[in-house]
Amino acid sequence: MSELLIAVALMLLLALLLGAILGYASVRFRVKADPLVDKIDAILPQTQCGQCSHPGCRPYAEALAAGSDDINKCPPGGEDGIRKLAELLGVEFKPFGEGAPQPKAKAVALIDEATCIGCTLCIQACPVDAILGAAKQMHTVIASECTGCELCLAPCPVDCIRMIPPGSELTNWKWRYPTIPIRNVSSGAKP
Amino acid sequence: MMPLFDFPGGIHPPENKAQSSATPIRQAPLPPQLHVALRQSMGNAARPCVAVGDRVAKGQLIATADGRLSAAVHAPTSAVVSAIAPQPFAHPSGLPELAITLDSDGEERWIERQPLHDWAQRSGAEIRDFLAQMGIVGLGGAVFPSHLKLGVSQLETLVINGAECEPYISCDDRLMRERADAICDGIAVTHHALQARQVLIGIEDNKPQAIAAMQAAAAMHGYRVVAVPTKYPSGGAKQLIHVLTGKAIPHGVRATEHGVQCFNVATVYAIGRAVLHGEPLISRIVTLTGAVDAAANVEALIGTPLASLLALARPHHDSKEVVMGGPLMGFTLPDLAAGLTKAGNCLLVKSPALFPPRPPAQPCIRCGDCASACPVSLQPMDLFWFAKAKNFDKAQQWQLFDCIECGACSYVCPSQIPLVDYYRFAKSEIWGAERDKNAANLARQRHEFRQFRLQRDKTEKAQRLADKAAQAAARQAASHSAAANLAPAADPKQAAIAAAMARAAAQREAAPLPEQHSSGLNDAKQAAIAAAMARAAARKTAADEAKAASGQPPTPPPQSSGLDDAKQAAIAAAMARAAARKNAADEAKAASGQPPSPTPQSSGLDDAKQAAIAAAMARAAARKAAADQAKANQQPDS
């Protein structure tokens, strides 16, 4: 009888001890934010353009983590981005919708400084503070900080902002994919 | 004879060095115009420090280093700066690059040269700084700033690289044959700066004359000249270190961590010229070879247009393209108008007769020849597979970045696959992805900071407005009490009114922004009400005072109204006390900087209730004051 009691007591003690350890660990090592949101956010291109109909990349990441939105809503991320999201979230690849915004080449905003009237509307629209200027002063875009979100185009009352594809430079030049050059074979060579 | 080691892989391509190594180094004629590119080293392009129209002397600094991996650029000859503009550049991309165009005046007038004669007494740091000013970079091809490689001391071994393993190139061979003493002077400076225990000069055994010349020169310094077996790519830094010392430098580790540093012979020669003669790096020796009539080595100024250099060697008529570097690692020059750079060791003219076009690539048969040729023991066929499939993560896991792009795998490939092209493509794609990632991180940071800033501005503005309203109310109350000549009985009452007004104002400001905007309209009305209330209160106090001054004994006041007054005063005092208490509590809450409290709804309700109470109290006080005044007005009449 006493053996049984000892065994029960021992198991009870063990359960209490392990429970205490687990309880402490769950408080001590609590993960505050949803790590999935961070992972999704890391894949998104951070243009903060709002084409996904969310006010920025992180809200879209949160919607994706909650499963309340589709993975094909981010044109700046391209199909590559959709593929990565599909892999991370364990869902099927989904191409961009028919009428939905389609991916296009990256470009940066350029303000025509002669036309700019210094209204500061574009400064307020820029999600990454990449436009410099003050009221009634000329504005200009810091090209290296511009994400190409195009949010500054709409508010401009004088339409002086254009999107310019970035020029090729030695610092961003890439080797081409090796291809076999196509040669012009004379028609007589045909069998 | 010291024991030598062997590195894995390697190939034995035809050397083809005799064409150019037979004749002594010639001086290239002074070109009328030079295009000195500002990107002469790894890292950022140098920043020009001269202006168009300036007259510069030979050896004068024309561009300063921009950042750590950048190197200074000097005028190769005395000239006039005619342009600072993008010019064709010796780079596989064919993209123009900013260059300083110099119209030489033919005088070759030197700037005052300031050699470091007492280098033997100088510290390593001083020599480093001096070389940084002299724009010395590695001339073996990587153009890494040399002073950065001198940042270590107490080395085990200093390796001088005279292997020159790539076919066709013979510039280092001729340099060692003709200027062995000057090279050894440069080694002495380098040795002094690095404090290495031993100096090994590795030269491939296909250059017996260079070995003999270097042995003769190095004997009195005590440096060891070692003939290493000819095998491509023994001239790679890690490969030569392995051959000479047996140390295989692991992945991701610098040779200096294993006590070895490696310099090219041309680099130490340039170091010697800089320290002993005060000459910055403004010229280099270039091999002109391939499909040419007069293959030769010429000493040419940096910035000499490549077309004019090539003309010295008289290219064959059927020559199609020109490669900078050797046949294995070089790249086809997109434009011969480019100026010579510090990296330009060889110009190889290709003709279909000499270099038959590479047959089209066949599928990989996984024969493994490339793996056995790879000097860094990679699996080139797997890397090729991953690069072709654009599976870059996998390629990186297979140590793509340990590939030195020596071209041995492409050379042996029986399917004629341009393997190195795939590796270069994969590398630049990975770098591009890295850049995009960094840009995205920067954008994320900036966006998050912007969100934070907007939120902060909003709360600060609300706080500011609340403070201002409270101050205005307090000022108003103070001015009224001053006008009322500080009646002691009236003070608490006025304080109560002021406090109520302040609370109401604070609550108005604390309300959400849009509401505030919409409520802005009836602000004026509220102010009018408050003012009317305050006026009424002032009138009443004035009346009270007049009563007190009329000599009526305050202690036993007339029974009928006196009792009433006393009661009223007591009530008012109690109310004022309560209001003051509440006010103090509110203030304490505000001072403790509590953001909207965790239960905003309940506290909001509370606030509303409090405000309602306060408003009711204020209304009541106003009514009472009006009644009092009416009574007071009636009293003199009666």
TrEMBL record, chain A:
NCBIfam families to which the protein is assigned, alphabetical: PRK05113.1, rnfB
Protein name as annotated: Ion-translocating oxidoreductase complex subunit B
Family under the similarity heading: Belongs to the 4Fe4S bacterial-type ferredoxin family. RnfB subfamily.
Cofactor: [4Fe-4S] cluster
Main function: Part of a membrane-bound complex that couples electron transfer with translocation of ions across the membrane.
GO CC terms in record: plasma membrane
Residue ranges constituting the 4Fe-4S domain according to the UniProt record: 32-91
Lineage: Bacteria, Pseudomonadati, Pseudomonadota, Betaproteobacteria, Neisseriales
Chain positions covered by the region annotation Hydrophobic: 1-26
Enzyme Commission number(s) of this protein: 7.-.-.-
Subunit structure and binding partners: The complex is composed of six subunits: RnfA, RnfB, RnfC, RnfD, RnfE and RnfG.
Keywords: 4Fe-4S, Cell inner membrane, Cell membrane, Electron transport, Iron, Iron-sulfur, Membrane, Metal-binding, Repeat, Translocase, Transport
Gene Ontology molecular-function annotations: 4 iron, 4 sulfur cluster binding; electron transfer activity; metal ion binding
Binding annotation for [4Fe-4S] cluster 2: 116, 119, 122, 156
Biological process (GO), any one: electron transport chain
Sequence positions that bind [4Fe-4S] cluster 3: 126, 146, 149, 152
Record text on cofactor binding: Binds 3 [4Fe-4S] clusters.
Main location: membrane
Subcellular location: Cell inner membrane
InterPro entries: 4Fe-4S_dom (IPR007202), 4Fe4S_Fe-S-bd (IPR017896), 4Fe4S_Fe_S_CS (IPR017900), Elect_transpt_cplx_RnfB/RsxB (IPR010207), RnfB/RsxB_Proteobac (IPR016463), RnfB_subfamily (IPR050294)
Amino acids binding [4Fe-4S] cluster 1: 49, 52, 57, 74
Residue intervals of the 4Fe-4S ferredoxin-type domain: 107-136, 137-166
UniProtKB/TrEMBL annotation, chain B:
Free-text cofactor note: Binds 2 [4Fe-4S] clusters per subunit.
Location of the region described as Disordered in the Swiss-Prot/TrEMBL record: 1-24, 541-638
Protein source organism: Vogesella indigofera
Protein known as: Ion-translocating oxidoreductase complex subunit C
Domain 4Fe-4S ferredoxin-type: residue ranges: 355-384, 394-423
A biological-process GO annotation: electron transport chain
Gene: rnfC
Chain sites annotated for binding [4Fe-4S] cluster 2: 374, 403, 406, 409
Main location (coarse class): membrane
Class of the enzyme per the UniProt entry, highest EC level: translocase
Subcellular location: Cell inner membrane
InterPro entries reported in the protein's UniProt record: 4Fe4S_Fe-S-bd (IPR017896), 4Fe4S_Fe_S_CS (IPR017900), Ion_transpt_RnfC/RsxC (IPR010208), Nuo51_FMN-bd (IPR011538), Nuo51_FMN-bd_sf (IPR037225), RnfC_N (IPR026902)
